[in-house]
Specification:
By secondary structure, the chain is an alpha+beta fold. It contains 14 helices and 18 strands. A six-stranded mixed β-sheet has the order 12-11-13-16-14-15, with helices on both faces. A four-stranded antiparallel β-sheet has the order 1-2-8-7, with helices on one face. The protein has a four-stranded antiparallel β-sheet with strand order 3-4-6-5, with no helix packed on it. Helix 8 (384-391) packs antiparallel against helix 9 and helix 9 crosses helix 11. The termini are far apart.
Length: 560
Amino acid sequence: MSALRRIVPVFMCLLLGFVLSTYAYADNIMRVRAFSNADKTRVVLDLDFNPKYSTALDGSTFIIRVNDVDNYKSAQNKLELEQRSVIKKFEKNLSGDDVRYIFTLEGAGTPNVFVLKPMNGQNYRLVLDFPHTALERRPQPQEEVKVLDQQTASKLVGTGQGAGIPPIKVITIDDADAAEDALLSSLSTVGADGIRTMTPAQAQAYQQRMEQIRAQQAAAQRLAQQQQQSNAQAQAQAQREEEVQDTPAPPTPLPVTLPAPNPYIIAIDAGHGGKDPGAIGKRGVKEKNVTLAIATQLAKYVNSNSRFRGRLIRSTDVFVDLDKRSEIAREYKADLLISIHADSVASGSSARGASVWVLSNNRAQRENSKVLQGEGSSQLLSGVSEVLSSTDQQNPYLAATILSMSSDNTRSEGYTLGQEILDKLGKFTKVHKKQPIHASLAVLKSPDIPSLLIETGFLSNRYEEIQLNQPNYQKQIAYCIYQGIESYYEKYAVQRIKTRVESAMRTGAAKVVTHTVQKGDSLSVLAQRYNSTVALIKAHNSLKSDSIRIGQKLLIPEVR
């Protein structure tokens, strides 16, 4: 009995260890996912084990069978497919504890199947690539057997004529060996002594046919090498795509319940939206979704600082006209307008990285001309509309000068802010251009609000498309932009004061007055009298020194 008591605990420990080890090393299909681009449809099975599998292709049906799956009953049985996918139907079938996934295909070439081993924290991935091929290129039943040379074969790459059931059959090495035996038998006779003999005509025909067969064999070898290299490149490419790392999250913005009085208003514009998707990456990522996600995160960071208040031009997936965006920013009495976008270039380009854009001088002059002609001058901020309304009829040249000064100062501030944001972005991600770029962009046309457009990356770049679709990457981009805004207001005191006074003007707490210099006036005296600053008076009047003359007219921002 005592011996039995000693045996039972040992047995229970062994049983418990077996159960735990079985649970720890379960062979599960964790997830099945799919995406499509112009070239292929890819299906990835995320696994926690190195799979044993087999495949079968029967016409338009492809089957992959994964052996010995522990969660065979609960393994995923539905697959979300894009419209351009060549997979038209997806089914799950069980055979014991083997899982069979059945794909009904349309317009697909021969599938390429391979396993990616665990790397950088990822599990095993069983990858199925279904190349896209033109349906109208399907072969006719009675096609001539041909052999392609390497040059001809290379021209067919990507056309769909070399994938799936090809319209041109290539003789393989095994076919060539069998053809040699058949040729020898057909062009020779066996004598009584068992030796094969040929007539001169038969020998000549044999030699000519053998040369053709060997040429076909050499061509088949070249094509096989090409296919092997192509598969290796595809697998390496897939490995790189799957290894784009998740971005760590930046600090979480904490909400501010008691904002400071008269905060700086930051208008944040998420590019595109609604019926306008913007750029679309090869994986189907849409610019309008990326920009809204980044803009929303940026507003949270801006609102976590009591000195700022972030206002979104659009907070949902709606279309907003380009001209309307700057008008909304003006309604918000914005101190800054930041428009978020994602870039895209022609297929084949490797361009990548973030960039900042500001309004070009030529576009600014055209917009100023429209204002001087009466198109929207009453809506301008910073007290500019008041000055224009009192001077444009009396002195149109003065009105043009005032508007040009306001526009130049606004673009200068936008450029300086853009440099700060680029500096912060460059510490996190690649930048496409190290300095802000001047361009004619409608959303930046406001002559009274410092405005800039930020291209957060290239959706046409397969790696940046993956990154821009990651929530943490979007948060990091937003955090860098916020850091640039914060740095701008910390480093540039003159711009900060100027913007503060202009913000007060928009809320009715300040105005611009015209003062005629009298005897005894100085910039410091006038600044004290009108509750302004010397720097602001000089900036508003483009003064390069502190010297002023009697009778000179000065524009002075006055804070009540």
